[in-house]
From TrEMBL:
Name under which the protein is recorded: CbiX/SirB N-terminal domain-containing protein
Ribonucleoprotein recorded as keyword: no
Record key words, sorted: Lyase, Metal-binding
Organism: Noviherbaspirillum pedocola
GO MF terms held by the record: lyase activity; metal ion binding
Coiled coil: none
InterPro entries: CbiX-like, Sirohydro_Cobaltochel/CbiX
Pfam families per UniProt: CbiX (PF01903)
Superkingdom as given in the UniProt entry: Bacteria
Amino acid sequence: MKALILFAHGARDPRWAAPFERLRELLRAQMPESPVELAFLELMSPRLPETVARLAEGACERIDVVPVFFGQGGHVLRDLPPMVDELRATYPGIDIRVAQAVGESPEVLAAIARYCIANSEAP
């Protein structure tokens, strides 16, 4: 089984997670054969290790972690790699892969640009 984890920063205000939860639900609808989970770096739960542990109990063979960060900043470059290294050591039977931050994708940037243009032209 292959799973997808959306990895976000987290915040004190629970309302902050709403767009990420909507994204998770959109992906679940488009990927019904794969678990799609949301995990946080800090301030919210579940955290990444908890999410991977739960997926490991379900005989998961591969986990793709997608940082839903606008850029490859400090959290993605400094905090995430040691966490993933530790998870790989804990679960050697699971292939854990990490994508670039979503904001690094040309397609994502083009979608954001279209949104900005549409909203600047609105009456």
